[in-house]
């Protein structure tokens, strides 16, 4: 498995190359899409991207935890966590080891 990280700049550049818009317009489109997704998750909505997956926010309750170094018990406060469930299409693509850039 590679340790490469796909950055926002690389995504913007991919949009630029694929769609043919200017680099500025490509960056704005990506920024707008990420902003809409973020705002939807903050407001408690699910975000489902067909053939990719579903993002959702889940509430975790207060619970007892344990410090693994010291063994001391501590209360873990309630919090929200972001979850992602990949679509079956994405799972198949990941597990079939298709070449990068192959269409869905």
TrEMBL record:
Offer an example of a GO molecular function term for this protein.
structural constituent of chromatin
One GO cellular component term noted in the UniProt record for this chain? cytosol
User: Is Transferase there in the keyword field?
Assistant: no
Q: Which UniProt keywords apply?
A: DNA recombination, DNA-binding, Transcription, Transcription regulation, Translation regulation
Q: InterPro entries of this UniProt entry?
A: Hist_DNA-bd, Histone-like_DNA-bd_CS, IHF-like_DNA-bd_dom_sf, IHF_alpha
Look up the record and give one Gene Ontology term from the biological process aspect. DNA recombination
At the top level of its lineage, which domain of life is listed? Bacteria
* Alphabetical list of SUPFAM superfamilies matching this protein: IHF-like DNA-binding proteins
Against NCBIfam families, the record matches this protein to: PRK00285.1 (NF001401)
Protein family according to the UniProt entry: Belongs to the bacterial histone-like protein family.
The record's listing under PANTHER family reads: DNA-BINDING PROTEIN HU (PTHR33175), INTEGRATION HOST FACTOR SUBUNIT ALPHA (PTHR33175:SF2)
This protein is called Integration host factor subunit alpha
Source organism (scientific name):
Magnetovibrio blakemorei
């Amino acid at each position: 498995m590679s340790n490469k990280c796909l950055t926002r700049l690389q995504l913007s550049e991919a949009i630029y190359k694929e769609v043919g818009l200017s680099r500025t317009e490509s960056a704005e489109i990506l920024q707008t899409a990420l902003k809409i997704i973020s705002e939807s998750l903050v407001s408690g909505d699910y975000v489902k991207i067909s053939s990719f997956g579903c993002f959702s926010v889940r509430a975790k309750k207060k619970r007892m935890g344990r410090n693994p170094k010291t063994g001391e018990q501590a209360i873990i406060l309630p919090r929200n966590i972001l979850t992602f469930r990949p679509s079956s299409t994405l799972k198949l693509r990941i597990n079939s080891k298709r070449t990068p850039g192959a269409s869905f």
